[in-house]
Every structure is written in structure tokens, then in C-alpha cells.
Protein: tRNA (adenine(58)-N(1))-methyltransferase non-catalytic subunit TRM6
Amino acid sequence: MPDRRKDIYEGAVVVVQKGPYMKTCRVSQGRSFVFGKKGEGQFTLNLDGALGCAFGSSFKMERISNKLFKIIQIKENTNMEDIVKESGEDNRNICDDGRSQKLSPEEISQLKDSGLTGKEVIQTLTENSLTFKSKTKFSQEKYVNKKQRKYDEVITLQRPSLRLLNNMYYTQDPLKIANLRIDMLSQILCYANVQSGGRFAVFESGSQGLVTAGMLHRMGTTGKLVQVYQGYHPQREAVDLMNFTEQELEVLSFINFSKLPDLDLESLKNGKESQTRSAAKTEVIAENREKASEDIKVEAKESNGESEKMCVDEEMKKVPAEAPKEGAGDEDNNKSAFKRPRKFVRTLVEDVEVSSSVLGGQIDGLVVVCRQHPVNITRELLEFLKPGHPFVVFSPYKEPLMDLFMEVKAQGATNLRLSETWLRHYQVLPMRTHPEINMSGGGGYILCGARVMSQ
Structure:
């Protein structure tokens, strides 16, 4: 029985990493996944060989057919010392004119298709390079590492984490997550004082559920987290990719913005339940009652697991299964024992009841992450925040937060701070530590503060 925290099990989501390329896949027996763009660079990979192996293991891609590969676990990657025999003192006399490699692209492609291993292909390339031996050891290592990513055909299966998911989304398209970098995400969690046992609310749109996943990861199995959303469904793609257990998902509940409860201080003192707010009372709701009723039916059906879709298997294809063993006559015995994890641990009605109870009792922290103008949303949600407790608002643009700054200041907020973080990555290697040449242009803006109430 594999350890679900350390080993890859059936139904687990893994981050497949091949050089800088990353993709999430849900491992399932007898299924394969398509990688790369359409054309010659596209290939299909079967991940059955990863079941039972530890997260972080490296695997060798072995060709089954033209573009179908299986994976075999390897203990050691290509060692540069086996390839580099001698090196030069400096690179001043090396001229990069594109003619240093004797082999043509067609000959290199034939080498790759002839069945040679990645190490043998790299060895052949270095032997046919006119300038490889005269390069310094550092340059040779950089050259070999570059060729390894291209020809070695080694992948690593990582356990999904906030950093990996954030880097994957940011590399694909920063606008897909509203320019939310990992350093800004960590600051949001810090400023909101997200911790185990607390009661928090988050409004998230346009960031693939990364903030909700980060808050849920910090809270563990104790506390309450309410995700407020607009439209038909909450954004929770990152939550589904984090391999949370059902016990951890019980902390999370959902409520539509149109169903927020009324907060009456007198009723709270008397212990009475709060009533549901009328949809006409809010200024930011665009959906009508007919769409809301359809939403209830769709989400209730999804909560029962009848029409649930796996967000990580968009390009998944079936691989021919092995012949059934003798004695396996029933169809149920031929089916996999894997049960798809539930996306929603409660029904829609139960989620609204739990969320209304948490918001009615007031929350310890509020987080708003959205692309749209946050003034109306933040104004409505600040009513549920306890006095003296923090709120954090993230936006990819500065101007909406400047408007919100004046709005919350007039309402009585204190310790307000509008900030932007400047981030630059460093390469840290022996005798070669320096800032990286390329850096991100911006990671968005954060407005944080605390709510206060006048006597």
C-alpha cells in the first residue's frame, strides 16, 4: 500500500516536468497523456510505470511506437564527468558562427531515431563539435545541460505544490493568473494571518484558485474557509490539483455573492440566525433568477459526482488495456479500484448553510483577489470582518486599489498600505552566482489593512 504523502498512487495528480516544461496529469492505470504542441514535437506518454514510486523520482522515456512512450524509473541521470574529458582556460577565442557542429540537423535527427540513448547522442554531439574542448568547464557544463533537456528524454514527476503550480501557470501565461507571482501569494497569506483554526473568507476570480488552495493548505484540517464567487461556479482548479484529502476539503465551503447573509448585530447578540440577503440589494450581481436556478441544478449534480470532469485530463487518451486474467468474469472485477475524488464534499444547499453560519458569526480575515474593480466587492464583504482583524486585496492594476484605498479609509480602516514587490531571481552556483538576465515585469499590487469600528 503506497504512502499517499510520499508515493504516487492511482488517482494522484502529479506535475510532469521535462526541463522547463511542466504539465499536470492525474495518474490512472491504462491512460496516456499528450504533451507538446501539435506537429513533430507532440508525443503521447503512458504513466503506468510511476505507480508506487516516490514523488520526485526521475523516469526514462522508452519508445513503444512512433509517438507513444512509456516510462521506466532511473536512479541516476547523465553524469557530465562521463562526457567532459578536457576543457580550456577561457572562451575569448571562440567564435559563435554556427559552424562549430559538424553534424547537420538531419544527421542529428537520424541519431535520435536510430535508438541511441540520450547520453550517447550527447556524446556524439560533443565529439563532433569543433569548439567544445576549448570551452571552459563551466561552459561545457552549460552546453551538456542544455543538450540533456533536449535529447536525454528524462522526466521528473513532482508532488503538486503552490510554488510548482504558480510557476507552471506563470510560465504558460502570466495573465492567466492575473500576474500573481509566488512572492505576492506568500505576502497575501502572511498579511491576512491565515492559520489553522481560524475563520476566513476569500473572493477569488481570474487566478485559477491559487489563493484558495494556499489558504486551505495553511489551515490544514481545522478552521473554516468560505469562498465567495460570482457566476455559475467557483474557481478551484488549483484546489483540485493539490491532492487534498476529503477531511481537508471539509474546511472549505462555497457561497454565491447573491446569497450573502444579512449581518444584524442585534440578532447576533440574541443568537438568532441571519437571513439571506436580497439579490437586488447588491450592485455587482448580473445574473437573474432563472440562471441561478439552473446553476443550482448543475452544481448539485456535480456535487453528487454524476457529471464531474477532471480538469487535468483535457488531452487524455486511452491506451489498449491488457487482457483480463482468468477467472475475472464480472465486469465490476475488471474495473479499476480507483475512485475519482469528490470535488464537493457537500451539496450546494449545505454549502450555503455552512458559509452563512461562518460569515454570520464574523470572520478573522478577508482576502479579495480579482481582476474587476474591487470596491463594491470589498465594501460588501468587509461587513463580515471582525473589528481589528486584517483584510488583503490583490489586483494586477494599481488604479483600482487607489480608489479602494480612499473608500475603505472613509469607512474606518486603519494601517492601510498599498505596495508592489520587485522580484529578481539569482543563479546560485559555485563561482557563478549572479542575477538572472530575464526577470518578471510585475507581479501585481496589494492593499492591506485592518478594519476598525467607531463607538
Remarks:
- Residues 137-151 form the longest helix (15 residues).
- Residues 80 and 141 are 7 Å apart (CA to CA).
- Confidence is low (pLDDT under 50) at residues 265-336.
